[in-house]
Every structure is written in C-alpha cells, then in structure tokens.
Amino acid sequence: MERMQGEGEGEVDHLERPSPLTDKERVMIQDSWAKVYENCDDNGVAILVRLFVNYPSSKQYFNDFKHIEEPEELEKNAQLRKHAHRVMNALNTLVESLDNPEKVASVLKVLGRAHALRHKVDPVYFKILSGVILEVLGEAFSDIVTPEVAAAWTKLLATVYYSITAIYKELGWTKPLTSTG
C-alpha cells in the first residue's frame, strides 16, 4: 500500500520559512555529504528506488520506467540511473553552495521551474523525496548521520521544499488534472 504524505498540498501559503542553517549545521551537512557523494550513483539509485517502491505514484512522471514494479529491475534501468545521477549532482551543487545563498536560490529556481513547467511534478513529491533521502541516509550512513546531523539535513531539505513551493506559487502553478487510468 502506498504511503501518501501531505495529500491536498494546497497549503503553500501556510508554509513557514525554516530558519537559516547555522555554520555548524552547514559543516555537518557538508561533512556527511562528502561520504555519501563518494558513491554518488549507487546512493542516488538507492534513494530513487526507495521513492518509487514506497510511493509508486511518483513513477507517473517517468515514461521510461513507470511500469517497472520490481526494485531489482528499477536499479538496472539506465534512465533511472541517469536521473539518480542528476538528482545527486543537484544535491551536491546545493551542499557545496551552502555558504552562497544566491547560488542556492539560483539552483532551486532552475529546478523548481523545470519541475513545475516542463515536467508538471506535484511539489508534494519534493517533500516525499526529502523524507526518503533522510531515511536512506540514516540507514546507509548511521555512523555519520547522527540525530544532530539528521536534524541539520531535515532543516536543509525543509528549506529546499519551502523554496520549491514558493517558486511553484510564483509561477501560478496549479495541480494538473490527471486522467483516470
């Protein structure tokens, strides 16, 4: 059964901007990310496979593998691996740029615009993906992702979600009508 968080995410107006990361939080995120990014592709695939297995509706945006059910098949899919690489590179750019708010805003603007206008992805999936990232990192890197580090990551990913939804709102994004089927 699919777990769906945040059904009816029309509450963009009510989201509160998370407080800025402290210097200590930035360092914790960057240090932990360095270990994760050493094995960028496999960790990215693990995150996306977890997303697609736990939230199958998230596959609707990917024609190349939306009908694949088996996690092992998903892991081998070239298009999924390519997208996982892009996700990890985008995260890497964000993490490397945490001391440059203009760069972070620019990256998120490009990401938000593309996902709203071109891919028409419901922004709730950014929230869902954030939870999956935290889950996978916490399991795969339990020695590095301590509760304090997880809290810093939670704050960063909440900021990403807040920024993405603000971009969607700025664009006048409304949830596309989905066909039955």
UniProtKB/TrEMBL annotation:
EC number: 1.15.1.1
Reaction equation(s) it catalyzes: 2 superoxide + 2 H(+) = H2O2 + O2; Fe(III)-heme b-[protein] + nitric oxide + H2O = Fe(II)-heme b-[protein] + nitrite + 2 H(+); H2O2 + AH2 = A + 2 H2O; Fe(II)-heme b-[protein] + nitric oxide + O2 = Fe(III)-heme b-[protein] + nitrate
Organism domain of life: Eukaryota
PROSITE patterns linked: GLOBIN (PS01033)
Pfam family, one: Globin
A molecular-function term among this protein's GO annotations: superoxide dismutase activity
Region (Disordered): 1-21
Stretches assigned to the Globin domain: 20-169
InterPro entries linked: Globin (IPR000971), Globin-like_sf (IPR009050), Globin/Proto (IPR012292), Globin_lamprey/hagfish (IPR013314)
Alphabetized UniProt keyword annotations: Heme, Iron, Metal-binding, Oxygen transport, Transport
The keyword Transferase appears for this protein: no
SUPFAM superfamilies on file: Globin-like (SSF46458)
Family according to the record: Belongs to the globin family.
Protein name as catalogued: superoxide dismutase
UniProt source species: Collichthys lucidus (Big head croaker)
